[in-house]
Amino acid sequence: ALETSNGIHFVAIGGDEHGNIHGNFGWVTIEGEAVDITYVADE
After folding, report:
1. Cβ of 29: how many Cβ atoms within 10 Å?
2. N or C: which end of the chain has fewer CB within 10 A?
3. Domains in the chain: how many in total?
4. Residue 34 lies in domain
């Protein structure tokens, strides 16, 4: 996990039985709105 002083965060979680990597990242916009992205990295 990584979080910067300006509110950007990133988390990657190890692979599942198919080798897929799960994770999420996000930030807060200038307007104060939280943006969160969740992903699965696969082939």
Report:
1. 9
2. C
3. 1
4. 2-41
Q: Residue 43's pLDDT is what?
A: 65
How far, in Å, CA of 40 to CA of 23, rounded? Answer: 7
pTM: 0.62
> What are the distances in angstroms from CA 5 to CA 16, 23, 25, 35?
31, 20, 14, 16
DSSP characters over 1-43:
-EE-TTS-EEEEEEE-TT--EEEEEEEE-TTS-EEEEEEEE--
Calpha distance 34→2 (Å, rounded): 17
User: Which two structure tokens, joined as six digits, stand for 38?
Assistant: 């969740």
Residues of the chain with pLDDT under 50: none
